[in-house]
Amino acid sequence: MGFGEYVVARHQQLFADAVQHVSAVFQCMVIATAVGVAIALATYRSAWAGNLAIMSTATVLTIPSLALIGLLIPVVGLGVPPTVIALVLYGLLPVVRNAVVGLRGVDPALVDAAKGIGMSPVARLARVELPLAWPPILTGIRVSTQMLMGIAAIAAYASGPGLGNEIFRGIASLGSANALNQVLAGTLGIVVLALLFDAAYVLLGRLTISGGIRGREH
Amino acid sequence: MGASIELENLSKRYPGNPSPAVDDVSMEIRPGETVVFVGPSGCGKSTTLKMINRLIEPSSGRIRIDDQDVTRIDPVKLRRKVGYAIQSSGLFPHMTVAENIALVPKMVGWSKARVRDRVEEMLDLVGLDPKEFHGRYPRRLSGGQQQRVGVARALAADPPVLLMDEPFGAVDPITRDHLQDELIRLQHELHKTIVFVTHDFDEAIKLGDRIAVLRERSHIAQFDTPEAILTNPADDFVSGFVGAGAALKRLNLTRVRDVGIAGFPTVSVDDPLQTIFDRLRGGPHNELLMLDRRGRPYKWLRRGDLMRAKGSLARAGQLVHDTVTRDATLHDALEAVLIDSSGRVAVTGRRGEYIGVVDMETLMNSVHEMLEADRLTAIEHQHDLEEARHHRTEAELEGGA
């Protein structure tokens, strides 16, 4: 059967996989953003701590994803746990790096002004530093998400959720009637989802980046 | 109304540096007074200022604001009572003009309605149209406008004290001049206690009720009125800082409002031609000032202009090039008078409306009076100093005998 017919015939399965894929990536991104920004906030003020944070998250990224998931299976078992841990770890680097760079890039005169008019340390962070560092942080989140969309496919190796299952099933049965269709459906599905995600981020940027700093270079 | 500020043996030492950045500064600033710290760069004037709102914690010494020791209170609370304006405005780029101004009033817990009214009031106060500027982001303002908003933000919660750290350092000279005039006008209305840091002595003369000339480590070389510093510098360091042309600088100390502003016959652009004719022919003047529809100076009209006008005044007369406000210095007024061919300059109010004129003769007379008065004070001062020295020598002689 042709690719079109295959998609129509399996649309329920494909849709369920796609939903799981998106939901896994989205949830891991939320965790990665929270953890990443927290790491950045804890380290950006000191030169060595900030650099250490960037370097260690960068090191994680050099581990091949298949290997990392493989290493996690004996520790946390199959299914959701290794997927979530791997995705969060990979998602950290762009968020941490952009958050550290963004927070460091806030004009010291503005921080001084914020202090000078009587803002408390928390208010300074929440009302001045984070909003000003938000555009680069959002860019980091965008990059992370794109990356995780692909890496999430590997999670199927550890019986994780998502469109990766489609791809792995196809690869396992290469030569059979629907093998190519399966790989193609999984891959194209991921590409389409990634594009949708990106569109959502553009919208999010419009809604959350103040008009006063939108469109600046970052 | 302003508060008094008292600095008592204030010092700042940085670890690893044997000589203090600020060494044992004591000074009393009276309520409602504008005190300018002036000195070469690196003399610690900015550090001294920042110790007043404890952006820099003093290593030793005490600060009292209205007799309350603020060296120990919560710095965040202290700063909400002390306005702070810095170079290149320090406006938050992600907040609108209104949000920037509303920051401190909101933090100290004003109601929404009160904050909203206050923002309008502050914009009006610094000469920006609230309707136009309310929702703008700082990047869509000129440097001068940003600085105005910066001052508005610093004053929004009505603090008794305003600290200004080279606030006009980053704007062009013309804008700086306007901003200085504005600040003087504001201060006339508000009577805050202002501490202003600059390295520009002319700015210090123009703005300060008293000037503290600082040398390295914030040692006070002289702390006195601008007049006294100009006519009687304490030592070579101060006279070096005053620079050449003290007599000309003296012109910066007197304002147009202090000399006689004379009336001048005016007509409006809406007046019929015949009325204008009659006034020119009938009156003792052979010149008139024509005002535009909003009452602002528009054209100087001479008799000869009317002869050539032939029924329409559209091309007749000389456009008014330059006007001065009542808060402008005599220096500015003299400049304007020298440029204008008629030898006078129109004085305008806050919204540019006509108030009167100042001419060359008035200016010359007041300059002469002013310099004469300065000379007398200087001689008196000299006399006092000599007497004091005389007494001291006598005392020493007696002590030695």
Short description:
Chain A has 218 residues and is an all-alpha fold. Chain A has 9 helices and no strands.
Describe the structure.
Chain A: This is ABC transporter permease. Chain A: The chain crosses the membrane at residues 24-44, 51-73, 79-96, 147-163, 183-204. Chain A: Residues 18-201 form the ABC transmembrane type-1 domain. Chain A: Pfam families: BPD_transp_1. Chain A: Belongs to the binding-protein-dependent transport system permease family. The complex is a heterodimer of chains A (218) and B (401). By secondary structure, chain A is mainly α. Chain A has helices at 3-9, 11-43, 47-62, 65-76, 80-104, 108-116, 121-154, 164-172, 179-208. The radius of gyration of chain A is 20 Å and the shape is elongated. Chain B is α/β, with parallel strands linked by helices and 401 residues long. In chain B, 42% of the residues lie in helices and 21% in strands. Chain B has helices at residues 45-52, 75-80, 97-107, 112-125, 130-133, 143-155, 173-190, 201-207, 226-231, 236-242, 246-250, 273-282, 303-309, 330-339, 360-400; strands spanning 5-12, 22-29, 34-38, 60-65, 68-69, 82-86, 161-165, 193-198, 210-214, 220-224, 266-268, 287-291, 297-302, 318-319, 323-325, 344-348, 354-359. In chain B, the strands form 4 sheets. In chain B, strands 6-7-8-3-9-10 form a 6-stranded mixed beta sheet, with helices on both faces. A 4-stranded antiparallel beta sheet of chain B has the order 2-1-4-5, covered by helices on one side. In chain B, strands 11-12-13-14 form a 4-stranded mixed beta sheet. In chain B, helix 4 packs across helix 6 (143-155). Chain B is flat and about 80 Å long. Chain A binds chain B through residues 109-110, 112-120, 123, 127-128, 131-132, 210-213, and chain B through 53, 55, 76-81, 83-84, 86-88, 90-96, 103-104, 107, 137-139, 153-154, 163.
